[in-house]
Amino acid sequence: MRKIAVITGSRADFGLLRSTINAVDSHSELELQVVASGAHLLPPDHTIEEVRSQVRIDAVVEMQRPRIFGRGADAAAVGRGVTGFAEAFERLNPDVVLVLGDRVEAFAAASAASIGGRTLAHVHGGDRAEGVADEAMRHAITKLAHLHFAATAASGRRILGLGEPPSTVHVVGSPAIDGLDEMASLDDSRHEAWGRPTAVLLLHGAGQSPATERRWADVAIESVRRHGPVVVLRPNQDPGSEFINQAIVAAEADPAFRVIGHLDRPSFIGLLRRVEVLVGNSSAGLIEAAALGCPAVNLGPRQAGRERPASVIEVDTPDIDRIANAIKRAITEETPRDHPYGSGGTGRRIAAVLGELTSIGPPRKRNAF
Predict the structure, then answer these.
(1) For residue range 16-49, what is the model confidence (pLDDT) as tens digits?
(2) For residues 227 and 253, what is the distance between their CA atoms, to the nearest angstrom?
(3) Which of 14, 114, 190, 320 has an alpha carbon within 20 to 30 A of 269's alpha carbon?
């Protein structure tokens, strides 16, 4: 049995990795290991309990500290993560370590695996997204990795452009598309309890100045307030998110807002099926919402460079009128459902490739050019 250690560090990547976890677990040639880390361990949501309720956790790696934000804090968290993942991998002895995306948890796990002489597989490599340090970390993980599961054809070409051998690059689609058809719309009772929302606001920190982060949050809140009842989801741990949280706290007494810390993936998808628009800077606006036919208004630079379908309207300046007009356009114009992220089945494709590897040994890297 080939042991596959899947790394999850946040509420977002666990939802995306769930189909891969299931496919690895059910594959006759693979043994699943799950390592939980990072933001999963942080209050107030402690989403590690959601992970634990669905899968067996084989190791836990602490990284970030509660209520401590910033680029320096992330750098220190990476150091703790590399040490923790290295110790976990020595104990679990996986044949392949699998990470997704560009967050600090993925980077720390990738560093520990690749430097430690273990085969590293990377999902969603080759994408472009400015984020905080995301663009650099994603491509750094690509250069650490030995096996690449790209979400789009363009991302696959970028991985090849980074000098990765063609035999290691597999365009499998985005796991964010997996299982969407099985997730129902939010039921009437919850919709009523949440104030019959017509919009979702999901804004994360983008590593900008405190004043800029707060300005984006304030104008986004005022813009969606004009539209109608709104569900506001709290941001993740990215630098700058503390200033977004401050704006949310200042506004949450408004009866038009329902502030929610965390939704499991089926509930989040069900909510997107029910509302008219998603506003913010989450990749969900460009991937899941597009696949569901939910229009999105993308704010600011966090997703700069990422492939986006025509259902996404961009606003690059923190201006209330511009955002409000974009929301109006999003809900009145016809929403195309074309997107570049595949049609599902990504988890099964990843597990199939992992099961068919002809050899696993101390990996080596060499540029293809």
Answers:
(1) 999 999 999 999 999 999 999 999 999 988 999 9
(2) 17
(3) 320
Tokens of 257: 């807002």
Look up the domain containing 328 and give its range: 183-332
pLDDT at 155 over 80: yes
Residue 365 falls within a domain, yes or no? no
Asked whether residue 167 falls in the same domain as residue 245, the answer is: no
- Mean pLDDT value of segment 307-313: 91
Q: Do 107 and 42 have their domain in common?
A: yes
Kindly state whether residues 164 and 209 are assigned to the same domain. Answer: no
pTM (2 decimals)?
A: 0.93
21 and 156, same domain (yes or no): yes
In a domain, 366, yes or no: no
